[in-house]
Design brief:
- Helices cover about 0% and strands about 30% of the residues.
- The protein has no helices and 9 strands.
- It has one domain.
- By secondary structure, the chain is mainly β.
- Strands 1-8-9 form a 3-stranded mixed β-sheet, with no helix packed on it. A two-stranded antiparallel sheet has the order 2-3. A two-stranded parallel sheet has the order 4-5.
- The protein binds iron/sulfur cluster.
Length: about 100
């Protein structure tokens, strides 16, 4: 398995503390529970956090129902996170 963490290529959750200019700046995010690919790292806070000069990566993914999930890790080359009904969710999710 390629051990490189997949990049978060884009995220439009502009209310998230890790987000600026449609980019995630958390070192490693976690996606989902067993069925829903929501961003688990997202949260609203009074100030922005993360590493501004760094693009976020996917540290772990718990969505076993995704075709790209291998041993609870994301095997994609990179993901896109988008707001779905007020929640940031992985848009790269693929149904098995
Ligand atoms: S991917 Fe998750 S942690 Fe990163 S900016 Fe988007 S909602 Fe926030």
């Amino acid at each position: 398995m390629d051990m490189k963490m997949p990049a978060v290529n884009q995220c439009n959750a502009d209310q998230c503390a890790y987000n600026s200019d449609n980019q995630c700046h958390a070192i490693a995010i976690t996606i989902g529970d067993e069925n829903n690919p929501l961003c688990d790292t997202a949260f609203k806070y009074s100030t922005k956090g993360g590493v501004p000069e760094l693009a976020g990566s996917v540290g772990a993914c718990k969505v076993t129902s995704c075709k790209l999930n291998k041993s609870l890790e994301c095997s994609s080359g990179g993901i896109e996170v988008k707001m779905h009904s007020n929640n940031p969710a992985c848009n790269t999710f693929q149904t098995k």
